[in-house]
Design a protein that fits this description.
mainly alpha
Amino acid sequence: MSIEVLNLFRMLRPRRLRISVAAGAVAVTGAALVVAAVFGAAELPARVLVIAAVVAWFSARVGDLRAVVAVTALAVAVFVGFLANRYGELTGGEGWSYAPLILFAAALGAGCQRMTMTAEDRSGRQPGATPRPCPWETNTMAIPPGSRSGGPDGR
């Protein structure tokens, strides 16, 4: 890759982070509105399970841990402030005793996402060409064009 392409990727990285955090905030806020409408105020375990499921889904889909941390913090604040307590109060109440479940769900989702990544994804490099068997011959390997330097006939 050329230097210009790498610089372009570096410039786009903060934009992807902002978009990921915004998408996670929309997901958490939407889930909180649905949970508030469906479950009563006394059903805190059901409320926290729905919020935890949304956080786990988000953290399993997003590769940037900074976005996962930001959305998890928002989810905990929304749950404790608006679903467990009223009017955004973050002190007192039993809402904080349910917060570790949201954190655990975020850790599970991030771990699942990390396990599905390849080594090239973790290092930020592009994956190389992978040889695969030719369908018509049994002892030959097909290598994608341009992945290996060779002579004029490609051997």
